[in-house]
Structure formats: C-alpha cells, structure tokens
Amino acid sequence: MMVFQSKVMIVTGGASGIGYAFAEHLARAGHRVVIADLRGAEEAALRIREQGLSAIGITTDVVKSSDVESMVEKACAEFGTIDVLINNAGLFTTLSLQPFDQISEEEWMRVMEVNTLGPFICAKAVVSTMRKNGGGRIINVASTTPIKGTPMMLHYVCSKGAVIAFTRSLAKELGSDNITVNAIAPGFTLSEGVLQNGMQNIMPETARKTSRTIQRDQVPEDLVGAVAFLASEGAGFITGQTLAVDGGSVFL
To answer: What mean pLDDT do residues 150-170 have?
Structure first.
C-alpha cells in the first residue's frame, strides 16, 4: 500500500492560470507549495494560505540565475528541502499569430529565453538538493503544438519542442540520481491569460471542441491530475516521457 508523504513543490509561473491551478491543487492535496513568479507570487500564496494550506510566494525571474538560486535558498529555509520542480513559467498568452518571417529576432530570443533557458536554470538550481534527498521529480510543461506542427507561432512551437527534447535528455542524465524528468503537453487551454488576452478567438469554439476526442474546451483543472501523478511515488519508474493532456486531440 502506498503511504502518502507531504512534499515540497516549486511551481514556476504559479501566480495565475495553469500554474495557480497546479499550486492550489497540490496544496489541497497536503503538499507544501512554493509559488515562484515574476508578479503576484505572494498574493497567490496568500490566497492558498487563507484556505488553511501551506504555501509561500517568492518573486522570481526564471531567466536570472541569481533570482532562481535565491528562491531555492528561501524555499529550503522555509520548508527544509525541495522534492518537486514544476517548470511551468513560459511566454504564450502575450504572443500574437504571425508568419515566421515577421517575427523579430528580439521576440524570438525572448520566447526562447523564458521557455527554454528558464527550465534549464531552475533544474540546475534544484538538482543538488534533490541529489542529497536521494531523488526528486522535475516536471516540464511543454505543448502539443510541436507535435501538430502548429503554424504562425514558430518561436513558441520551437521552444516547446525544445522542452520535450530537454526532458528526454535530462532524464537520461539524472536517472542514476533517482530523479525523474517528465513533461506534460497541454492542448489549447482556456487559462486566465488566454481569456484576458482574447486568445480564445484564435480558433472558433466549435473547431476547438471537434478537434478533440473529448469534445469540450480544456481548462487548467484538466491538467492537475497528470502533474499530481507524475509528482507521486507511483510514477517513480516513469521518466523521459511526454504525456499529452489535451482531450485526445493528438496521440503519442
């Protein structure tokens, strides 16, 4: 029989949207949550603490090593360790559809910086603590867009394809340390940022639904079960995998 153990979990980009759904669900499940975000981290953690749950918020820019290292130090000072890193922070909802030859080099580099350098820096910052613990979990948030070859957002699609490659290669490096590295690949999700920026209008509602086997819109809560499972003891022999959580729009 599996015995539940409360874990310390970092959720980057956890102040809103999909990240907040992860943080709140995991806290409700009895885990201690660290919300790391550029804006709103402490406010989001307060919302969770007001429910009688355990969470702290730390303002963090995931592309700055000094920020991330400081966040990890504060997390360890508060909770004693780090068991799980959820690399959720990324650029998407502020981007617009455009042909690849109209994407500026500056925008391309910024997307790559946040979506690929961020997970790299965060993984580097937590791995020594996980090794001391005898293991850990790293969960990266990718996307189904590189699987589909989605057009008109080439920088975003390439960055999430890189996250899948990052997941596979890092899993090979950390397997001997009993650290699993997996990814989830959401479909188009009606997150807070998507709705605020009107991105749901990219695709008509009927098309969003009929493209899926489960024919309804995807919401952030649809993703929390997959993350909770990959963070659990029951997923200890699963690594290097990308789990598509999109209502059956793609099959891997």
So the answer is: 97
Number of domains, the chain: 1
Percent of the chain whose pLDDT exceeds 70: 98
C-beta separation of 251 from 187 below 8 A: no
What domain range includes position 59?
8-245
List the strands of the sheet with 84-87, edge to edge. 55-59, 32-37, 8-12, 84-87, 136-141, 179-186, 242-245
192: CATH:
3.40.50.720
Residue 1 pLDDT level (bands cut at 50, 70, 90):
very low
Contact 53, 31 (CB under 8 A): no
Whole-angstrom distance, CA of residue 100 vs CA of residue 153: 7
pLDDT at 227: 98
In a domain, 3, yes or no: no
Segment 179-186 shows an average pLDDT of 98
Is residue 25 situated within a structural domain?
Answer: yes
Q: Where are the alpha helices (DSSP H) in 64-103?
A: 65-79
| φ, ψ (nearest 5 deg) of residue 87 | -85, 85
- The residues annotated as belonging to the active site are 156
Neighbours of 184 (CB within 10 A): 25
Residue 2 lies in a domain: no
Give residue 203's pLDDT.
72
Neighbours of 231 (CB within 10 A): 25
Cβ–Cβ under 8 Å, residues 49 and 71: no
Is residue 138 assigned to a domain? yes
Residue 141 reports pLDDT greater than 90: yes
Alpha-carbon distance of 223 to 48, in angstroms, equals 19
In the prediction, which pLDDT does 98 show? 95
Cα distance between residue 25 and residue 4, in whole Å: 15
